[in-house]
Design goal:
It is a single chain. The protein is of the alpha+beta class. The protein has 4 domains: 17-186, GAF domain (Beta-Lactamase), CATH 3.30.450.40; 203-306, Beta-Lactamase (2-Layer Sandwich); 320-438, Beta-Lactamase, CATH 3.30.450.20; 501-650, 3-Layer(aba) Sandwich (Rossmann fold), CATH 3.40.50.300. The chain is 43% helix and 22% strand. It is built from 23 helices and 24 strands. A 5-stranded antiparallel β-sheet has the order 2-1-5-4-3, with helices on both faces. Strands 7-6-10-9-8 form a 5-stranded antiparallel β-sheet, sandwiched between helices. A 5-stranded antiparallel β-sheet has the order 12-11-15-14-13, with helices on both faces. It is extended and about 115 Å long.
C-alpha cells in the first residue's frame, strides 16, 4: 500500500473518530439536560445514532441482575426488517461463552466473522445462525468496579471489522449511558423516600415545620399546611403564622417563644387559629430553638397537632368530674387518681394495661412505688423533680414525656399529664389525678423522620457537590497523562509509587516547579484501592486566603457575609477517595491546625456549623518549598510536617536525568508530526545533543494513549 493510500485511510479513521467523539459529546450533553422521565428515550436515541454510525443491524444495552443470573435487553434499536429481541428472554444461557467473557472476565467480545468464534463458543455459533448474525461487538461497561451492563452491536448483512480506537470510545459512551440510567434510578429512589417520609408524617397526624428566624420564611409539610389552612403554593412567613393565630392568643404565644429563646429550651403551647376559610381550630405546638456557631438564634423547629376535637370534648365535659377533664385533655387515655390521706387509688383498665399493673388492689403508696420502679433510670430524676414541683405547689400542672420499662412488653414512651385535686393547709398535695398515653410510635416516627431527612440532605449535598466537581473536571480538555523516562532516577520514583500506592499512608511529593508532581499523585491514586473514585485536587496557592477554609472544609449558609448558599468542602467530596493538596507550603498556619486534626481523626466541621463530619480520605501533598526551613522560620507546623512526611517522594528535575531526554524528544516529535500531518523519522544528532544541554526542570508531558 502506497503512502497516499495510507494517508487516506488514516484521514478516514480520524474523521470517524472525530464524528464518534461528537456523538459522545452530544449524548453526554443531552443526557445531562434531559428531564428525568425522558432519559430512557434519550438513551434509545443515542443507541440508534451508534447503530447508524457503525452501519450495523442491531444495537442494544444489556443489563444483568445483581446476582448475574439473568441478562436481558434493556434498550435496543434495530434496522428495518430486523426481528427485535424480546426483553423477557434471559440471554445468559443462550450465549454462555459471551456471558462468561463479558460479566465474569470483564473482557469484550469482538468477532468480525463467524469463523473467528472459538470452539468453546458452540452455543453462540448456533444462536448466531438462528439470528443471522455475521459479526458482533459486545463491550462490558464497568460502573463502580462492577460489570452489570454491556453495549451490543450485531451485523446481519455483512462481516464487520471493529477498529480498536472506536471500541475504546464505545466503552466510554456505554459508561455515560449507564451513569444516566443509574442517576435516574437514584433520583427516583430519592423521590420515593421523600414520599415515604411524607406518609410517615401524615400517619403521625402531625405537621412538621422549620422557621428561619433570619429570613422569616417557614418550611412546612403538607400536613402542617392542612392544619393551618395555608394554600399549596403559598409562601409561609412569620407574618402569615402570626396572622393565623387568634388575636386573643398572640401575646401568650409570643411570650412562650421569646422565653424559649432566652432559656434556650424547648417550648410547648396550645392556642387557637383562624384559618382562611374562617374556621377556628385549636393547635398544640411543641418546638425548640437552634443557634449558629456564632451563638445567634437561627431557627425554630417543631411539630404542630390539630387538637380541636380534644378541646371540643374538653368543653363538652367541663361539668364532669375532674378525672374526666384530664382524660379528654389528652384524647381520653389512661386515667388515675391517688388520695395520699386515705390511701385510695383508682386506675382505669387502659392505664393498668399501659403500666402493666395487675388487677390486684393497690393503695396510693403502692401504685407510686410500682410506677417509680418502672420509669427508666435515666429519666427518673427528671420525672421525680417535676412531681415534687407539682406536689409542693410550685407547678399547677405537670406535662412530661419519659421512657417506661413495661414488665412484659419492654420499653415505651409515655406522655404523662398530672394535676392536683386537693392540698392541705401547708399547700402540699393530698390528692392528685392524671392521664398517660403511649407515644412510642410518635417518638419513633419523629426520630426516624429526622434521621432520614438528615441522610437525604447529606446525600443530596454530596451528590450535587460531586456533580459540580465532575462537571468542572470535564470542562478541561486533556489527554491521559503518563510519565516519560527510563532513567534510574525516574525508575526509583515509580518504584516508590508502586510501593506506597496500595497503602493508606500520607505521601509528601517534593520537587521543583514543572517536575510533574501532580502526575505522580495521579499515579499513586490510580494504583491505590481508591482508584474507582475521583481524586480531588486543590492548589493551595491558587485560592484566596479568605476562601481556603471554606473550599477545603465547606461552609453553611450565612457562615459569613456573602455566604448565600451551603457549600460542601473538598474533604467531604473526597470521602472514600484521595485528596491532592498542591503547594501545601502556602497553607495558612491557622488552617494547618485544622488539617492536622483531619489527618489524626478524620474529623472536621464546616464553617458556621457545630456538627462534626467524619471522613475517610487519603492525603497526598506536594510542594516545591523547603518545609524544614519553613518550620525553623515558624511558617509551617512541625507536627503537621511529620504527619505529611510519612512517605516522602522526591521528583528529580530533568537536568538530573539527561538520559530521559531522547525518549521525550521522540515523544514530542511523534505528537507534533501527527498534528502537522508530517512523518519525521530522524532527529539530527546536533539537535539531540543541544536538548541534552537544556537542563530545564520539566519531567512530565501529556502522552496520547
Amino acid at each position: 500500500m502506497g503512502a497516499k493510500a495510507k494517508a487516506t485511510i488514516q484521514s478516514d479513521r480520524l474523521e470517524d473518530l472525530l464524528e464518534f467523539e461528537t456523538l459522545i459529546a452530544d449524548t453526554s450533553a443531552s443526557l445531562f439536560a434531559c428531564p428525568l422521565e425522558e432519559i430512557h428515550l434519550a438513551v434509545e436515541r443515542a443507541l440508534e445514532r451508534v447503530r447508524q454510525f457503525f452501519r450495523v443491524d442491531r444495537c442494544g444495552l444489556l443489563t444483568a441482575s445483581p446476582g448475574l443470573e439473568v441478562v436481558r435487553v434493556r434498550h435496543a434499536t434495530y434496522a428495518e426488517g430486523i426481528q427485535p429481541v424480546s426483553p423477557e428472554v434471559n440471554l445468559a444461557p443462550v450465549f454462555p461463552w459471551s456471558f462468561h467473557r463479558l460479566f465474569i472476565e470483564h473482557k469484550p467480545v469482538r468477532i468480525a466473522r463467524v469463523s473467528e468464534l472459538p470452539p468453546e463458543a458452540e452455543a453462540e455459533r448456533e444462536a448466531w445462525a438462528q439470528m443471522s448474525i455475521r459479526s458482533a461487538l459486545n463491550i462490558p461497561v464497568e460502573t463502580r468496579g462492577v460489570v452489570r451492563h454491556s453495549i451490543v452491536l450485531n451485523s446481519v448483512v455483512e462481516d464487520r471489522e471493529w477498529p480498536d480506537v472506536l471500541v475504546t470510545r464505545l466503552r466510554v459512551l456505554g459508561e455515560i449511558l449507564v451513569s444516566a440510567l443509574d442517576r435516574r434510578e437514584l433520583l427516583a429512589e430519592l423521590h420515593e423516600t421523600q414520599e415515604k417520609l411524607s406518609l410517615a408524617a401524615d400517619s403521625a397526624d402531625a405537621g412538621f415545620w422549620v422557621l428561619d428566624i433570619r429570613t422569616g420564611v417557614c418550611w412546612v409539610t403538607e400536613k402542617a399546611r392542612a392544619i393551618f389552612g395555608f394554600e399549596k403554593d403559598q409562601t409561609v412567613t412569620t407574618e402569615a403564622l402570626n396572622a393565623s393565630i387568634h388575636v386573643e392568643d398572640r401575646e401568650r404565644v409570643a411570650r412562650v417563644t421569646e422565653q424559649s429563646l432566652r432559656d434556650r429550651s424547648p417550648f410547648e403551647v396550645e392556642y387557637r387559629i383562624v384559618r382562611g376559610d374562617g374556621q377556628l381550630r385549636w393547635v398544640f405546638t411543641r418546638g425548640r430553638p437552634h443557634y449558629s456557631s456564632m451563638d445567634q438564634p437561627e431557627s425554630f423547629m417543631g411539630v404542630s397537632i390539630d387538637i380541636t376535637r380534644q378541646k371540643q370534648s374538653e368543653r363538652a365535659h367541663r361539668t364532669s368530674e375532674a378525672r374526666l377533664e384530664s382524660g379528654v385533655d389528652l384524647a381520653g387515655l389512661g386515667f388515675y387518681e391517688l388520695d395520699f390521706v386515705s390511701g385510695d387509688a383508682y386506675l382505669d383498665n387502659r392505664l393498668r394495661l399501659l403500666c402493666g399493673c395487675s388487677e390486684g388492689s393497690y393503695d396510693a403508696a403502692g401504685v407510686q412505688r410500682f410506677w417509680a420502679e418502672h420509669v427508666h433510670p435515666e429519666d427518673l430524676p427528671m420525672v421525680m423533680q417535676q412531681r415534687e414541683l407539682l406536689h409542693s405547689g410550685s407547678l399547677g400542672r405537670v406535662s412530661v414525656e419519659y421512657r417506661y420499662l413495661h414488665p412484659t412488653s419492654g420499653l415505651h414512651w409515655f406522655h404523662h399529664l398530672a394535676r392536683v385535686a386537693e392540698r392541705d393547709a401547708t399547700g402540699r398535695a393530698t390528692r392528685t389525678y392524671g392521664v398517660m398515653r403511649d407515644i412510642s410510635d410518635r417518638r419513633q416516627s419523629e426520630e426516624a423522620l429526622k434521621r432520614s431527612l438528615e441522610e437525604i440532605e447529606r446525600l443530596k449535598n454530596r451528590l450535587e457537590a460531586e456533580g459540580e466537581y465532575l462537571k468542572s473536571e470535564l470542562r478541561l480538555t486533556h489527554v491521559h497523562g503518563e510519565i516519560i523516562g527510563q532513567s534510574p532516577a525516574i525508575t526509583e520514583v515509580l518504584r516508590k509509587v508502586e510501593q506506597v500506592a496500595p497503602t493508606g499512608s500520607s505521601v509528601l511529593i517534593r520537587g521543583e516547579t514543572g517536575t510533574g508532581k501532580e502526575l505522580i499523585a495521579q499515579a499513586i491514586h490510580r494504583l491505590s484501592p481508591r482508584r474507582d473514585h475521583v481524586m480531588i485536587k486543590v492548589n493551595c496557592a491558587a485560592l484566596p486566603s479568605g476562601l481556603v477554609e471554606s473550599e477545603l472544609f465547606g461552609r453553611e449558609r450565612g457562615a459569613y457575609t456573602g455566604a448565600l448558599t451551603r457549600q460542601v468542602g473538598r474533604f467531604e467530596i473526597a470521602d472514600g477517595s484521595t485528596i491532592f493538596l498542591d503547594e501545601i507550603g502556602e497553607l495558612p498556619l491557622d488552617l494547618q491546625v485544622k488539617l492536622l486534626r483531619v489527618l489524626e481523626t478524620g474529623e472536621f466541621e464546616r464553617l458556621g456549623s457545630p456538627k462534626t463530619i467524619k471522613v475517610d480520605v487519603r492525603l497526598i501533598a506536594a510542594t516545591n518549598r523547603d518545609l524544614a526551613a519553613m518550620i525553623r522560620e515558624g511558617k509551617f507546623r512541625e507536627d503537621l510536617y511529620y504527619r505529611l512526611n510519612v512517605f516522602p517522594v522526591t521528583v528529580p528535575p530533568l537536568r538530573e536525568r539527561l538520559e530521559d531526554i531522547p525518549p521525550l524528544v521522540w515523544f514530542f516529535v511523534d505528537e507534533f508530526s501527527s498534528r502537522m500531518g508530517k512523518k519525521i523519522t530522524q532527529v539530527p544528532r546536533k539537535t539531540m545533543n543541544s536538548s541534552r544541554g537544556a537542563g530545564g526542570p520539566a519531567t512530565s508531558v501529556n502522552c496520547a494513549t
